[in-house]
Amino acid sequence: MATTKEMTIEYRNVDQLLLDPSNDRFAELYSGSEKEEDIVEYLLYTEAAEEVATNISDRGYFYPDQALWVVPKGKIFLVRDGNRRCAAVKALLDQKKYGLDLAKVDIKQLPVVVYHDEKELDRRIQEQHTHSLFREWDPIAKALKAYEMHQSGSSEEVIREIDSNPSRLIKLASFYYEAVKTGEEGLKKLLRRGKGNVGGKTIIFERLFTYSKQCGYQFKGKPSYVIEVLDQVQFASYISALVAYLHAHPKTSHGDVDHERSDFLKRLKDYGFTPKEPPKTGTKEPENATTPSPTPTPTTPGKRGSIKTRPTFERKQIAPKLKRLIDECYNLDNTQFANAKVALVRVTFEAVLKYVVEETKYKNKKLASYNHFYLAFNNKHGKKNIYTNFTLLKVKFTELITDTGVMNAFRGFDLEKLHQVVHNYKVGAGSHDARTSGENLLPLIEFMLQEPSDLLSTLNTSKLT
Question: Shortest CA distance to 448 belongs to which of 436, 456, 438, 460?
């Protein structure tokens, strides 16, 4: 057991660990009871804890370096970070109750970091999530956290560590808080992930921000960005109709909005909503108007820039096949080809990484020829492997990165998780998985495909022996 003034690292029985229904990641969209079984079920089938359970079951143990962050509450411990992992283990110990049929595991205790100062834990969570974990959150959960930070006085620069476009997150969250007054649980079901096609509709609401004035609202300009309801009756009618329509037509995607533009609103006529007349052609859009755009993605780690839907890179004359592979990956539709997109994200990452290591030279020697990368390409007997060990190659490349934020981004890009998502025959990849994996890959490609001299300047080349 390791101990400091603020925390203790130890193991605790699973039944001593209490899931946190007020966890930032899912509390606002949960709206359920505080019974543990209800929270476990929600996390399993709405927050993808089922995938976590599958991974734990497949390997037969819980990674000791994935300790939960908890605070003592009498004789029990409240899980402040790691609720999905904890729920997955609880479900594995009572599979029949939660509808699982996985290999049995006997995990009676979990590693925990017990924080004795809850304010210190809050600071730690803020610090850690800002740089890495928020990237895994659903857009709405990320937006709600950014809005909380904005309302408490955090600057755009601080919020930009979560996402490259703070204003977008603030608009989305403020819209949510206003819309949920009308849409209630029906709206929440559309925004959160879950089984079937009902959830994951956040992007549809965002795409329709462009036509906000036809729906009775607009967004204020900088520095507020928050929603301003211009016609409460019109806005309430719009939310009620859109919620009802999307529940009745769960296969509706953002592509429908992109294709039909403002005409999409005509679909809501049978549900009691009539849009206001659009601005006359040639009328200048106000500064606070939003325009339809694909879901924003982070820019290159460590750099600020515009929102991108596909990577741009500075490296010249990369292999044509690699360029085609990257294009193919980002041309795949997240909704229609979710499994293929997730699979190709992994393939693209591995192909780019191998290309960079094999084609980038330091002191006239290719990186791959240095001992640092030896075991990724060769076995311990000195013979070249038939297949590259990409897991090790990723680890060894990440070890060279000097920027902490970039290093965490590479560490958080889990190749095994992508593999498990694609091969989960019970559920399969969803549009959220496809979109998120593509977004997370984009800045990694941009980092790796910098000009070789720029790339080398970001690496600790003293480790190359």
Answer: 456
Q: Is 104 left (phi over 0), alpha (psi -120 to 50) or beta?
A: beta
For residue 316, which phi and psi values (nearest 5 degrees)?
-95, 150
pLDDT surpassing 70 at residue 428: no
Q: Which two tokens stand for residue 94?
A: 């009572």
Give the pLDDT band (50/70/90) at residue 230.
very high
| Planar angle of CA 303, 308, 311, nearest 5 degrees | 80
Helices 431-448 and 404-412 cross at an angle (nearest 10°) of 140
Distances (CA, A) of 236 to 250, 291, 440: 21, 22, 35
Instruction: Choose the weakest-confidence range: 123-127, 220-224, 304-308, 332-336.
Output: 304-308
pLDDT higher than threshold 90 for residue 194: no
Neighbours of 241 (CB within 10 A): 21
- Token code pair at residue 319: 């292999």
- Whole-angstrom CA distances from 298 to 111, 134, 307, 347, 433 are 32, 12, 7, 20, 16
- Between 32 and 108, the more confident residue is 108
Q: Could you give the CA distance from residue 327 to residue 324 in angstroms, rounded to a whole number?
A: 5
Domain boundaries, the chain: 2-135, 139-271, 320-463
Picking from 405, 352, 404, 397, the residue whose alpha carbon sits closest to that of residue 373 is 397
pLDDT at 46 > cutoff 80: no
Total-model pTM: 0.47
Residue 317 burial (CB < 10 Å; 0-12/13-18/19+)?
Answer: exposed
Distance of CA 387 to the CA centre of its chain: 30
pLDDT over 80 (residue 165): no
Residue 254 has which token pair? 């953002």
Which token pair is 462?
């003293």
Give the list of residues 6+ apart from residue 78 with CB closer than 8 angstroms, or none.
18, 20, 70, 71, 72
Tokens representing 257 are 């909005």
What per-residue confidence (pLDDT) applies to 245? 95
338: phi then psi, degrees, rounded to nearest 5:
-60, -50
Beta carbons of 77 and 114 less than 8 angstroms apart: yes
- At 123 the pLDDT is 79
8 Å CB contact between 244 and 198? no
- Residue 318: closest CA among 355, 349, 346, 345: 355
Report, at the CATH architecture level, how domain 2-135 is classified. Answer: Alpha-Beta Complex (3.90)
Res 27 pLDDT > 80: no
One-letter amino acid identity for 103? A
As a whole number of angstroms, the distance between CA 411 and CA 131 comes to 12
